[in-house]
């Protein structure tokens, strides 16, 4: 049998050049915030650095990811770099799938899975280090984990280290939240990404993305294309139209092409197709939602097309309902999207909006989920997690809701539990946003 090919040599990434500084900060502090540009090596290298420097002797390292596909793909990459089988020293745990073993000392998991683990083991004693990666996404789960970490570092005084990492998080705010913990800024990316802007917002971003994709295919050298769409419907439309237009190109005028969708409701075995080797002389078009926005490295992606929109769940206080709306992305999201190119070679990002829109209309960062949710919903969610010894009124949020309203919500929820018919008598502000 042929012997397996040796694992690729780990790349020297900006973060690796700061190894001593990172380890010194972690040695000396219970919490450290690491801000590093996209592609600098936060997701794949921090866990390996701390493993190398002895932090897994007393427990495992947990690294949270906001999305399942990222937990799977990053753990696979780290296992490959360390030359170990996935599920052994390096593994992952996502909803419905646990690929870890007794030997696992670096575990990638979604923030939801870590929260569930904290129900059965409130002190999370199995971990010596917890890394909350991509914290800038500010999902409700991340915000709850930040509060839990604050409590844990007091309870587990000297035997737990927490790292909070992000490409763009407001480091000072998080540092203040954690009593002035150090913030390490790691400059540098591996490869440059050239950005191109449209002169105006397209009236139809699907059509505009299609034209850009075909243009790249016809004129640019080999390299895969990652196209950001807002949701499954857009993706399905885009995939079929793109396949049709590629077929209509003059035979022999372009290399072969393969179009692949990537979104959260795709079964895991179809999601991971984007990481499989491509057929030779073939350009792949990966049409994705924001699941491809953070932590993901798809080897050979050289071109990114960013429509500038995202589908976001938000609460509407006047109707008392949640809706999934297509909204403008934030600058942080735009930079994360551009950062998917230029990871393994120089890249290009086509932004289907003018630079002035990026600079003046996009929000700096995505509005935290807690501020897009109904306060009653968030309180109920926190209650439903059934976290031991949690007093919701005292729960430490990075952006805490008002104590007065939280108290009213709790009172109302207790009343509703006993008299559900009284809901129509309640003032609507109780169900408004945090
Ligand atoms: N699956 C992979 N195949 C090839 N190279 C990879 C892979 N995963 C990571 N890399 C290399 O490691 C680099 C760092 O990746 P990593 O995910 O650790 O960065 P990051 O700082 O967490 O980025 P981001 O904030 O954008 O997620 C990539 O830019 C790329 O060069």
Automatic annotation (TrEMBL):
Protein name: RNA helicase
CDD domains: DEXHc_RHA-like (cd17917), SF2_C_RHA (cd18791)
Keyword Nucleotide-binding annotated: yes
Ranges of residues in domain Helicase ATP-binding: 23-187
Family matches, as PROSITE patterns: DEAH_ATP_HELICASE, HELICASE_ATP_BIND_1, HELICASE_CTER
Pfam families assigned to the protein according to its UniProt record, in alphabetical order: AAA_22, Helicase_C
Entries under InterPro entries matching the protein: AAA_22, DEAH_win-hel_dom, DNA/RNA_helicase_DEAH_CS, Helicase_ATP-bd, Helicase_C-like, P-loop_NTPase
PANTHER family attached to this UniProt entry: ATP-DEPENDENT RNA HELICASE, PRE-MRNA-SPLICING FACTOR ATP-DEPENDENT RNA HELICASE DEAH4-RELATED
Keyword ATP-binding: yes
GO molecular function term, any single one: ATP hydrolysis activity
Keywords for this protein: ATP-binding, Helicase, Hydrolase, Nucleotide-binding
Regions annotated as coiled coil: none
Chemical reaction(s) catalysed: ATP + H2O = ADP + phosphate + H(+)
């Amino acid at each position: 049998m042929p012997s397996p090919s040796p694992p690729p040599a780990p790349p020297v990434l900006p973060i690796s050049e700061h190894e001593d500084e990172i380890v010194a900060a972690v040695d000396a502090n219970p919490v450290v915030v690491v801000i590093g540009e996209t592609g600098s090596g936060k997701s794949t290298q921090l866990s390996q650095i701390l493993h190398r420097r002895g932090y897994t002797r007393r427990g495992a390292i947990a690294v949270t990811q906001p999305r399942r596909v990222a937990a799977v793909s990053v753990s696979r990459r780290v296992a490959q770099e360390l030359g170990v089988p996935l599920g052994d020293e390096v593994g992952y745990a996502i909803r419905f799938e646990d690929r870890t073993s007794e030997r696992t000392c670096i575990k990638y998991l979604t923030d939801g899975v870590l929260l569930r683990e904290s129900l059965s083991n409130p002190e999370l004693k199995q971990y010596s280090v917890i890394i909350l990666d991509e914290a800038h996404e500010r999902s409700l789960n991340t915000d709850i984990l930040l509060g839990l970490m604050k409590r844990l570092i007091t309870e587990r005084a000297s035997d737990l280290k927490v790292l909070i990492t992000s490409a763009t998080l407001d480091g000072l705010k998080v540092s203040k939240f954690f009593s002035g913990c150090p913030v390490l800024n790691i400059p540098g990316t591996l490869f440059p990404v050239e950005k191109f802007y449209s002169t105006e917002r397209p009236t139809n971003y699907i059509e505009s993305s299609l034209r850009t994709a075909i243009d790249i295919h016809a004129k640019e050298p080999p390299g895969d294309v990652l196209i950001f769409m807002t949701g499954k419907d857009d993706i399905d439309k885009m995939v079929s139209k793109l396949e049709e237009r590629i077929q209509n190109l003059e035979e022999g005028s372009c290399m072969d092409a393969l179009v692949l969708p990537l979104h959260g409701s795709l079964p895991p075995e179809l999601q991971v197709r984007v990481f499989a080797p491509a057929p030779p002389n073939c350009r792949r078009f990966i049409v994705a939602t924001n699941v491809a926005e953070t932590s993901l490295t798809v080897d050979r992606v050289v071109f990114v097309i960013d429509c500038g929109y995202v589908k976001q769940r938000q609460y509407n206080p006047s109707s008392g309902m949640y809706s999934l709306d297509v909204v403008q992305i934030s600058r942080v999201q735009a930079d994360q999207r551009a950062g998917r190119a230029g990871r393994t070679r120089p890249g290009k990002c086509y932004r289907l909006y003018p630079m002035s829109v990026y600079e003046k209309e996009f929000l700096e960062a995505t509005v935290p989920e807690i501020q897009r949710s109904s306060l009653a919903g968030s309180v109920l969610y926190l209650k439903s997690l059934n976290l031991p010894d949690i007093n919701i009124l005292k729960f430490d949020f990075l952006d805490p809701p008002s104590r007065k309203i939280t108290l009213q919500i709790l009172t109302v929820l207790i009343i509703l539990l006993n008299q559900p018919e009284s809901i129509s008598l309640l003032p609507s502000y109780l169900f408004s946003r945090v």
